[in-house]
Design brief:
The chain is an alpha+beta fold and 153 residues long. The chain is built from 3 helices and 8 strands. Helix content is 16%, strand content 50%.
């Protein structure tokens, strides 16, 4: 992982307490973020996930999926692509329950080694630089975006 950018588009609705990459040593890196919900509970969530590959700028790569977050959590088999993307961070998150969400959203210490294993063994991605972009909507209004940049070597 080379960078993580968390942006709140409506600070009165939600804000990021922290959003960072931490390098413990040369081989161990992890990402963490905490989004504080100021207005809740949240009953309607829509998420757009897109993956871009860096080739003379970032170009769309394989997936650009929009899903109803509340329905997806209830039936994760409904969208295999979304399920794969969700499982990249779900073991390290508190988002694995159904709506409504009225607590902070936490993704804590997702290790690069886990992501690298998922993206090179489970679904082999070509070696390159990628951007994983997600836009988070509530009540049909874009509230936040989280972009993670990584290099698979």
């Amino acid at each position: 992982m080379t960078n993580i950018i968390c942006t709140s588009l409506d600070e009165s609705y939600a804000s990021f307490e922290y959003c960072y990459l931490k390098s413990v040593n040369r081989t161990h890196k992890y990402a963490s973020l905490r989004a504080k919900l100021h207005k809740g509970p949240v009953y309607k969530i829509k998420v757009n996930f897109a993956i871009y590959q860096r080739l003379n700028g970032y170009k769309p790569f394989l997936y650009n999926v929009t899903v109803d977050g509340c329905k997806f959590i209830l039936n994760q088999k409904s969208s295999p692509v979304t399920s794969f993307i969700f499982n990249l961070f779900a073991p390290y998150s508190n988002m694995n329950h159904s709506c409504p969400y009225d607590n902070d959203i936490i993704v804590e210490k997702v290790p690069y080694s886990y992501l690298n294993g998922q993206l090179s063994t489970v679904l082999p991605f070509p070696k390159s630089s990628y951007a994983f972009c997600s836009d988070w909507y509530s009540d049909k209004i874009k509230r936040a975006s989280v972009n993670v940049h990584a290099t698979i070597t």
